Amino acid sequence: MAQGESENFIVYMDDRPNDVRRLSERLERFNYVMRTLQNVAADPSPVKLRVFVVRSTRRVQSLLDGRAGENTTGIYIPTTRGPYTIVPERTQNRGRFSIRSEEILFHEYAHHFMLQYYPANYPGWYVEGFAEFWSMIRLRPNNRVELGRPASGRAPDLHLSPWIRTSDILQNEAPLSSMLYAQAWLLTHYAFFDRDTGALLRRYLNRMQEGATAPAAYVTTFGLSGVDYDDVLQDYRDGRMSGMAFDLPNTPDFPVTLTEISDEEAEIALLYPRATKEGLLAAEELVRRYPDNPQAHVELARFRIEDGNIPGALEAADHALALSPEHLEAHLYKGIALTEAAMDSADDDDPRWAEARDHIARANRADPDNALALYSFYRAYPNDGQRPEIVDQALEVAYSSVPQSPEVRSAMVNEMINQERYDIALQIIVPLLTAQHGAGADPNAEAMLASLRQYVNEARRESEAEGSPDETGPER
Fold first, then answer.
1. Which helix (H) or strand (E) holds 85?
2. What's phi and psi for 368, nearest 5 deg?
């Protein structure tokens, strides 16, 4: 296996180094095109996206450990440790209507791009429509770009499957299906090239960002348009679709650092995207086979924390530190395990709090950009009133690095409530409800949003009743 590291990506691929370099460069080029066309001025996150490219969709399924449907060919998962995607090097299908492996890769990266740079409350259909639209990009030689190509892999559904009413899609009431993906792509494609529909879509999405449900956002936008979008989109499907081709002559070079990694290192690296149950079993096996590898013990510590085995996690972290006393993640996971143990004691004076902070701080000094270390440092202070300002700043830096992390975003919501910055808390809450891979991914999403909003509003009312000011500075 070879590893390629560039400005925004760490790619793991069981292939020749030149193939890894080429894929890393294409990912960077795709990111550059998306940033340019979407007018993203923000600096890249210091937390890079890990891309695990495996041989086949069957191997993707084996690493997913049952976390997605049996037809899933790729997945993007945001975590505080660092977001990652698993995609196949090749797909099993061939022919005119097959979906190319690069389309799967670009689809999953589009999920990351959306949540990294534009976190908001998106309906499930638009999350997939956005990713499908960008997955069809073609990066040609000499910095030529083609955008808006037809999604040939979705053509059979668009022409043969039962049509889903566009109003049902826009109200986020259509169940997950391949036809939903197909029509979500078609609607997103049309809105990208049709000025009036694009403006309507932006108003619809803004209403949801403000806290409206998808049905409410539909009623006040598309529902008032007087346009029969079923007819419009079916005519668009059957006619000549829009598209564009252009040059980006100033596209920079994208340096890639290549590293050959051993079979042992590759097996341990592939623990990163595993789910807890299967990952724990795999980590235990690798620790038996490679007892002198500190990273194997670190991964075991992580899985044991996730499994609730804190004594076992501390034991594994201590093994890693005995093998490598300065190992960043060994200190980090020991600190996390100590934090969990101290939390269980329900004692703010438990000495394990201070010990946990010491280990986490050592990890932070080794890598000041490590989002998990920053977030863990925040968690290692049990008393809000005794938390130094630098700890709140650590949380804010983690939030800016991995805004797609649900646990970091939730912590920021709590922190804004503690600071009585309620409007900002509501802004941060909304993207927590974004569902990937289908409108039906979380049937309780709207209820969760309503509950969170009620909690924040109650806290606001209590504060106003006590005469406290509601400070609403800019979101940090």
1. strand 84-88
2. -65, -20
Q: Which helix (H) or strand (E) holds 360?
A: helix 351-366
Name the percent of the chain in helix, strand, coil, to the closest 5. 60, 10, 35
Distance CA 336, CA 343 (A): 11
Structure tokens at 365: 């000094």
Residues with Cβ within 8 Å of residue 321, at least 6 apart in sequence: 294, 327, 330, 331, 334
Show the domains of the chain with their CATH numbers: 1-138 (3.40.30.160), 150-242 (no CATH), 274-403 (1.25.40.10), 404-466 (no CATH)
> Phi, psi (5° rounding) for residue 121?
-90, 90
- State the pairing for strand pair 84-88/49-54: parallel
Q: What is the pTM of this model?
A: 0.90
pLDDT of residue 467: 67
Mean pLDDT for all residues in the chain:
89
Higher pLDDT, 463 or 45: 45
pLDDT per residue over 418-462, tens digit each?
A: 888 888 887 887 777 665 554 333 444 456 567 667 877 787 788
